[in-house]
Amino acid sequence: MIGHQAERLEELVTSSSNQDPKKSKKTRFVTITSGKGGVGKSTISSNLAYTLAQHGLNVGIFDADIGLANLDVMFNVKIKKNILHVLKGEASVSDILISVMRNLILIPGESGDEILKYSDMALFERFMEEAQVLDKLDVMIIDTGTGIGEHIQMFLNAADDVVVVTVPDPAAITDAYATIKTIATLRDDVSMIINQVKSEKEAVGIFNKIRKVAHANIGTNLDLRLVGKIDSDAKVVSAIKQRALFCALYPSAAATHDMEQIANQITSKLERNVLVTSNESGLSGLFRRLIDHF
Ligand SMILES: Nc1ncnc2c1ncn2[C@@H]1O[C@H](COP(=O)(O)OP(=O)(O)OP(=O)(O)O)[C@@H](O)[C@H]1O
Ligand SMILES: [Mg+2]
Fold it and tell me: In CATH, what number does 2-293 get?
């Protein structure tokens, strides 16, 4: 049933994009995920979004499952409605978007499964139309949150970069490896951030071990990359307690320096000034990809 609905959605997206050959920037979609919960996905997503926005990029941050103490807490904002309300016709896109700061928009999401259940044509058409306000985004970061199970697959498929976050704890590493194995059935490239480390050396050591096991068991086709590391830093904890972003509150902290390096890595991958049809950009582009992979 849902497959059929998705087909109808796809037709709709295709036809509406044909009618509207508007060109806009290509958005790079970066999905942040993990095996184990609580390893720093939301901390990284929010501070990365902030850092990229500070660099002058237009950034969107999509909370795949708002309300589970994720990005609303990180940005210290109150969320009343999310994307599901838009798809149900209870809110407009502009009602749910939260302008967190200059160049940075928070999009309160919902688990993917729920989203695709609502395929009322007229509402979806309106949604895609309204979502074009986000077509100017350079980067959209997707925080997958916890407990969204299999729906997460859509975000793994739809992304340009999938970043698996882990911490040095052996249980987290095991879960990260299991996640990488799953992602490898969907795509050939996976990135990693090793969070809460003592040093670069520790991060590289952990990464090399994971890569060795991955290449031996998953195969050498897998392009596993280390995007960066973040030191375990009391300033990170302190900022979270104050409901602030550590990169904003502590610009000279070690963790902030690490985040800068990660942001530079992401920025270097952006295809600047590439003009694409609007269905490849912004929020509508994300939905277009989700539907394509469904
Ligand atoms: N670099 C760091 N240094 C010190 N503490 C950290 C660091 N990164 C994360 N933490 C701690 O880990 C906690 C969990 O982080 P966060 O909420 O970002 O994880 P998460 O992966 O988003 O969790 P969930 O899976 O529940 O969504 C933070 O509240 C903070 O105390
Ligand atoms: Mg989180």
Answer: 3.40.50.300
